[in-house]
Structure formats: C-alpha cells, structure tokens
Design a protein that fits this description.
The protein is α/β, with parallel strands linked by helices. Helices cover about 30% and strands about 25% of the residues. The chain is globular, with a radius of gyration of 21 Å.
Length: about 325
C-alpha cells in the first residue's frame, strides 16, 4: 500500500485522486487535508483532516509532523508548493517522496517576467510584450506605450496563482450599463488607477497587451517513453477541444527540453489571430487535467505517482481530436 497525501487542492482534484487510485499493482490510499473542512475532496479520500491557518516555517513543520503521524509515503503538495520544494531534503530524511520539481525551477517559473527571459532567444516561441511596474506613474507610462500598438491592455501581478489578479482594462466605461452585466475580470482604467494610487510602491505588476483569442492549455508529463502533451483549446464555454496542433506541440517540446520538469505541469498559450503566445507554465497538475486524460485515454496522475517511486509505466495515447466537457454531480458532505 502507498499512502499519498494531498494538501489543500482545488475541487477538481477529486477526479485526479480517482485517477491516481487506478493502479494495477499497488493499493493507493489517499489522505486529504484542506483549510475548508467541508471540501468535497474528502469524499474521495480514505482519511480527511482540516488544516490549520498557519504560514512559513510553521506550516513546513506541520507538514513534516503530519507525514510522520500519518505514515505518508508520497506527498502531492499544492498549498505552499514553492516553500515545500525548498525543503525537499527534510521530507526525504523522514522517508517521504514529494511530487514537486526542484526549488530553483519552481521559483523561476512562478515569476512570470523571469520565466519569459528563459525563452527570449527561442525564435519559435512568441512572448508577449510586457512591462513590470511598481508605482502608479510607471503603470500609466507602460499603459500609454502599449495602447499605441494594442487595442486593449491587461495586468496581473508577477507572483500569482490561477490568474487571481488578472484584470482586463476597459476605457470609456458606461457605469450604469455595468449594473446589468457580469463584469468578470474587467476593470475600468480609472478604478485600477485609483487602486494603484493607494500605495506608493506595490509588488511587481505585469502590464501587457490583452490577447483576445482562445487559451490553449497543454497538460504535460515527461516520461522515459517520451513526452505526454495534451493540448486543450479553451473557449468561453465549458467544453474544450483537444487538438494536436503540430505548432503547439513543437512549442511545448521546446519549452520542456529547456526547463526539464519531471512531474506533471501545464503550459498555457493565448492566441492572437493564428499566433500562439506563451502565457505561463504551472508546475502542478491543472484543474482541467481530468479532461485531457479522458480525451487521450492516458492516466497522467498514476504514471506520475509511479515515476515518483522510480517505476516507468508503459502508456499509449489516443490522439484522436475530441471535444470534451464535464458535468457537476452533487455529493453529500455530512
């Protein structure tokens, strides 16, 4: 039996845990924890615990103690992944394998500006124009410069997860009309400027052109047999199209050859016309990985778990292009 711990993952990891448990050689026993005690993930875990609201070294010590107390063999972190990667040796000393890449790589890719610099000499990759700003004046200057060439501009903090800080900037906003529509990630130039003016200096903010086309999300895992890469073309609707565009696959291969990630990751591109631009590289399993695995008929979570223990699992892929979606099923928590 392999005892695996998932700490504070998003709700779609429900299906990722199910996939990981589909092992033909070992019983996979999953221990789950979350700061939300009623998270639905508990319904697919064999044990479930509420996490404390602590940070920094206190959380690392909590994780180490948790692994010892619950006889954990493999740790699949999401919460504080960067900090955990910095402390991999401490987990290895207590016999725990951690499904996370090396700290230097994760820290580099978590900084969007530094990540773009890695690929600036790759002629086959398209990197968006961007400016890093730390004050209102710098933002206003960057905004004016980009608006000379692009129709719309967007912003996002360099250190971000899941695009939480992403905002599309709108001009000449009809504030009354806004009351009748869902604003989503849009923000007026005036409102953003007012927010930024509330502090003299702020964390690195990336200002870049808004790319209006679809997002292409590529779920990846490097294996001894070769690279698994499954691109999902994401529109505004819930369904996504798995398409094996040779251009996207070549760009993905170029990225993976340069950064050498061992465990599941997700590379995001955004289209402007027919041109795909690199957005970001996430060093974890994506929320949509379940759809990629279904479409391609390949079990990335289970292959990755076996890789963590030094076992190469043979795999095949169905490369037929498909449209895939998902439905929500109710679960009683308590």
């Amino acid at each position: 039996m392999i005892r695996v711990w998932f700490n504070h993952w998003f709700s779609t990891s429900y299906r990722l845990i199910e996939l990981m448990k589909e092992d033909t050689h070992e019983q996979i026993y999953v221990v789950g924890s979350n700061r939300q005690k009623d998270s639905v993930i508990q319904k697919v875990c064999d044990e479930w615990y509420e996490e404390p609201d602590i940070d920094n070294e206190d959380y690392i010590k909590y994780c180490l103690d948790f692994c010892v107390q619950h006889d954990i063999h493999a740790f699949v972190p999401r919460r504080k992944m960067v900090e955990i990667s910095q402390n991999i040796e401490r987990f290895e000393q207590i016999g725990v394998k951690v499904m996370v890449d090396d700290h230097a790589t994760i820290q580099l890719l978590n900084d969007k500006a530094d990540a773009y610099q890695i690929f600036k000499d790759c002629s086959e990759l398209h990197i968006p124009d961007f400016h890093i700003v730390n004050s209102l004046g710098e933002f206003e200057q960057a905004y004016r410069k980009l608006r000379e060439e692009y129709e719309q501009v967007c912003v996002k903090f360099v250190r971000d997860e899941g695009g939480m800080s992403f905002r599309k900037i709108a001009e000449n906003v009809d504030r009354f009309k806004q009351l009748r529509v869902y604003q989503g990630s849009g923000i007026s130039y005036e409102m953003l400027s007012e927010a930024l003016s509330s502090t003299a200096r702020f964390d690195d903010l990336m200002v870049m052109p808004y790319l209006p086309g679809n997002e292409i999300s590529v779920d990846c895992l490097q294996t001894g047999k070769g690279l698994i890469a499954i691109p999902r073309n994401k529109g505004a609707a819930r369904h996504e199209r798995v398409e094996y565009d040779p251009k996207i696959l070549q760009m993905t291969d170029t990225i993976m050859q340069r950064i050498h990630l061992k465990y599941p990751c997700n590379i995001q591109f955004k289209l402007q016309g027919d041109t795909p631009y690199l957005l970001e590289i996430n060093t974890r399993m994506s929320g949509g990985l379940q759809m990629s695995c279904l479409a391609a008929q390949v079990n990335i979570p289970n292959i990755a778990l076996n890789k963590l223990f030094g076992r190469e699992i043979d795999w095949t892929m169905d490369r037929t292009e498909k449209t895939v979606s998902y439905i929500e099923l109710p679960r009683i928590i308590s």
